[in-house]
Design brief:
The structure holds 2 protein chains of 2 kinds. Chain A is of the alpha/beta class. Chain A has 3 domains: 2-26 and 147-288, 3-Layer(aba) Sandwich (Rossmann fold), CATH 3.40.50.11540; 32-117 and 293-362, Ubiquitin-like (UB roll) (Roll); 373-446, Alpha-helical ferredoxin (Fumarate Reductase Iron-sulfur Protein, Chain B, domain 2), CATH 1.10.1060. Chain A has helices spanning 2-7, 22-25, 128-137, 150-154, 181-188, 190-204, 218-227, 248-256, 276-288, 318-325, 380-384, 391-399, 403-410, 420-424, 431-446; strands spanning 30-31, 37-41, 51-52, 59-60, 65-68, 77-78, 83-92, 98-106, 167-172, 208-214, 234-239, 271-275, 294-300, 308-313, 331-336, 343-344, 358-362. Chain A has a 6-stranded mixed sheet with strand order 1-14-13-17-15-16, with helices on both faces. The longest helix of chain A is centred in the last third of the chain and has 16 residues, at 431-446. In chain B, α1 packs parallel to α3 (79-90). Chains A and B meet through α10, β15, β16, α11 and α12 of A and β1 and α1 of B.
Chain lengths: 447, 352
């Protein structure tokens, strides 16, 4: 551990899945047409669901707030297109349950200009608190996939003894195979990214920012470096490619050599982590006083005819995106997110939410993963686990339903389901699935 | 509107590394082939016949158990084949074939199926079979025929064809006919009981002597390194077995060089190399933690030398590895990895 952290080269363990980024990494971001209908879920981020402030039949203008935060750990939602609120009702989500969503029928003839904005009078003189409020007003959440309300990270924690934040870590690792959305954003919108980093530095109170980028994206690193000013306390660091480098604990360790203890936040080591995509939006939206209405999504995989990165309005159904990008498969697995941690969606009418970084379409495998052998204790999972758990033992305990023991004696709760263990398992044991089940049962028993 | 595709749902991760159980086992077989090839070169048709008898016993029991449990055949995972090859190399090729058959059947039946099959066996199945024949047929197991004997590719050793349940005839007379001078003792036994040392060079690189009982150490290391390079073998285990054995051997040798063999002889003789690289490394019976693998290897190395130096037998690798297998759950219990960022205090270990 010592030498690695001294050189700060990378974290230990992890895996090297085939990257498959070439298909989309060189293609400029394109804008999708507006879909005829948008489905904007009120609970598409972590925290209290937003509360709708529009009524059925009401006309909305692109960029106008349509829902207010449901609490501090919550964000407002903005109309992703000009149209009319058709209904507010339960709609299916990628996670499974049907949850309330605002359905907007988009006006076909509308020029779709952002007509609603509320720019602050003097953006550069806003205090830290005012900036954090502005971040919340913009409806920003972690666009890397977690969709955790961004302003909550920057606000002072209500309780607990934390050291002062000294470093802002900007996550440009994008370690998931196939995904290139952050890569393209860094290459094409470096000005927005750096503007966002400057705002985040102000909001965090940190003295410096370190942007971590895997070295398969050197063009992105160069693009950002060109926009960093002489007196900006911002540096770009390239890291060797390894999954899950974009996990915040791994990234902090790779960049700074600091280790965040299990169950603790990056703040416990004086760090705040934000994704580059989030900061690009911050840099663009905050000075203009606009809200988050769209995001860049990588659409790729063997089942897609025109893979690329697309600007997709929040709430666009997967079906519409795939119609535009061309769905080649008759029989497909459709993944929201990356192939390591992404979630399969059960139907195409499920919309793109803030946290969806990619839509991958894969054709069914040749059945190689269909056979599950018993654990042969090969230790590949133990050597892959970036959290230094013992997935082999956890898997055996899960099979025996000893879920409490998994948590109490084998640190199950430190697992963030990166999938390294199941990726390397030569017995094809669905370890991550076992661990999710065990955590769910433990939660149920505790609650 | 696109036609609704038929949608598959799977849990993440949605991609998988190309290595599976079968490919690991297949590579172990590949790695063992040169070692077994040398064995055949030394002992000829008798070695092939011994493997055939062991295979018949082990694969037969594996298939029978699958049928009794109403499961698909597990012969395709190669693990029973590995057990058979290892076992066939650790018993003398002069064994009556019926005994070899029993060894194979016991290895899989008692060593593996009894515990629940692949992944559940506590002990290395090949060594369970070997230990069984050690107890059941001590005379036959402790008599090695001379290696590189005349006519080894044209016929079997007379004792091979002993009828089932009968004791084999002595091969002493036969041995006198096929080689000039041969005592029937292995290099280890000669060192231990007669203080006659076989040149280490021959043991390492396979000098053509009648006293060889196994493939040369160098060949075994090369084959083991192939697996280690493909990450299908934990290099920590053979290295720590060798370190443990050489370390204790060095202490004894420095203490009394006339009585105890030098560390190089200890490493190169008997079954130590084969055991260290191909038996102690059996994934199922060895610890999954890297620190545990080192402790386990050192334990096996030290116990091997203790048995060789102080025990009644010349060889100790087999019992050392079986003991290591038995100690594995305990070793794992005390060497659980500490979660990332969890500080100095060792997390609570789990149940063994």
């Amino acid at each position: 551990m010592g030498l690695m952290s001294l050189f700060g080269r990378s974290f230990r363990h992890g895996v090297h899945p085939p990257e498959n980024k070439d298909v989309t990494a060189g293609v400029p971001i394109r804008r999708l047409p507006f879909p005829p209908r948008l489905i904007v879920h009120l609970d598409q981020f972590i925290g209290a669901p937003a509360r709708p402030i529009v009524k059925k039949g009401q006309e909305v203008v692109r960029g106008e707030p349509i829902a207010e935060p449901g609490g501090f750990v919550s964000v407002p939602l903005h109309a992703p297109a000009t149209g009319v609120v058709r209904d507010i009702k339960l709609m299916p989500t990628a996670r499974g349950p049907r949850t309330p969503a605002i359905i907007i029928d988009v006006y076909e003839a509308s020029p779709q200009e952002v007509l609603y904005a509320n720019p602050p009078n003097d953006f550069d003189s806003l205090t830290r608190e005012e900036l954090i409020e502005a971040i919340q007003r913009a409806g920003l959440t972690g666009l890397g996939g977690a969709a955790f309300p961004t302003h909550v990270k920057y606000a002072d924690p209500p309780k607990g003894d934390f050291p002062p934040v000294d470093t802002l870590v900007v996550n440009g690792a994008e370690c998931e195979p196939w995904l290139t959305a952050d890569h393209r954003v860094m290459v094409e919108r470096p000005r927005d990214v750096i503007a966002g980093v400057r705002i985040a530095l102000r909001a965090s109170g940190a003295g410096r920012a370190v942007i971590g980028i895997e070295d398969n994206k050197r063009d992105a690193a160069r693009a950002l470096e060109e926009h960093i000013g002489e007196d900006d306390p911002i540096s770009v660091r390239t890291l060797p490619v390894k999954y899950p480098q974009g996990a915040e604990k791994m990234l902090i360790h790779a960049l700074l050599g600091r280790k965040v203890a299990p169950g603790r936040l990056p703040r416990s080591v004086g760090v705040i982590v934000s994704n580059v995509g989030t900061l690009a939006q911050m840099g663009r939206l905050l000075p203009r006083g606009e809200g988050l209405i769209e995001r860049v999504v990588t659409v790729a995989g063997p089942g897609v005819k025109r893979p690329g990165n697309y600007i997709v309005p929040i709430g666009t159904p997967a079906r519409f995106v795939l119609e535009e990008a061309g769905l080649a498969a008759e029989h497909a697995e459709i993944i929201f997110g990356g192939p390591m941690m992404g979630m399969d969606v059960p139907e195409l009418d499920i919309p793109v939410t803030m946290g969806v970084s990619g839509i991958l379409v894969r054709e069914p495998e040749d059945g190689r993963a269909s056979r599950i052998w018993p654990c042969i204790k090969c230790a590949r999972c133990v050597e892959a686990c970036p959290m230094f758990l013992n997935p082999s033992m956890l898997g055996l305990l899960a099979a025996r339903r000893e879920f409490g023991k998994m948590r109490d004696d084998y640190n199950l709760d430190a697992c963030f389901e990166c999938g390294c263990c199941a990726y390397v398992c030569p017995s094809n044991i669905p370890l991550v699935q076992y661990f999710r089940l065990a955590k769910a049962v433990n939660r149920e028993r505790a609650g | 509107m696109i036609r609704k595709p038929q949608i598959e749902l799977r849990p993440s991760p949605h991609i998988h590394a190309p290595v599976d159980v079968v490919s690991i086992m297949r590579n172990v077989v590949f790695a063992l082939l040169p070692v077994f090839g040398w064995h055949v070169w030394m002992f000829g048709l008798a070695a092939v016949a011994t493997l055939a008898a062991v295979l018949a016993g082990s694969l037969g029991v594996e298939r029978l158990v699958c049928r009794l449990r109403g499961e698909n055949s597990t012969l395709g995972d190669y693990s029973a084949l590995i057990t058979a090859i290892l076992l066939a190399m650790t018993i003398p090729p002069s064994m009556p074939l019926w005994m070899s058959f029993v060894a194979g059947a016991v290895a899989i039946g008692l060593g593996k199926a009894f515990f629940g099959g692949l992944g559940y066996n506590v002990f290395n199945p090949a060594l369970v079979g070997r230990a069984f024949v050690q107890a059941a047929f001590p005379a036959a197991v402790n008599t090695w025929p001379p290696a590189f004997f005349e006519g080894r590719f044209s016929g079997l050793i007379p004792s091979n064809l002993t009828p089932p349940l009968m004791h084999p005839p002595s091969i002493a007379d036969w041995s006198m006919k096929v080689v000039d001078a041969y005592s029937g003792a292995t290099p280890l036994a000669m060192q231990k009981f007669q203080h006659q040392q076989t040149p280490v060079w021959d043991l390492f690189f396979g000098g053509v002597t009648s006293y060889a009982t196994g493939a040369p150490a160098a060949l075994i290391i090369v084959c083991g390194l192939y697996l280690a390079a493909r990450r299908m073998l934990d290099w920590r285990i053979p290295l720590s077995v060798m370190a443990g054995a050489a370390g204790l051997a060095a202490i004894l040798w420095l203490h009394d060089p006339a009585h105890y063999p030098d560390p190089l002889f200890v490493l190169a003789s008997g079954g130590l190399m084969l055991g260290a690289w191909f038996m102690a490394t059996d994934m199922v019976g060895s610890p999954v933690t890297s620190l545990g693998a080192v402790v386990y290897g050192l334990l096996i190395g030290v116990v091997t030398v203790v048995i060789r130096a102080f025990g009644g037998m010349a060889e100790g690798v087999m019992y050392a590895i079986l003991l290591g297998n038995a100690a594995t759950p305990l070793i794992e219990h005390f060497t659980q990895p500490r979660p990332f960022g969890a500080g100095r205090r060792r997390g609570k270990g789990g149940g063994a």
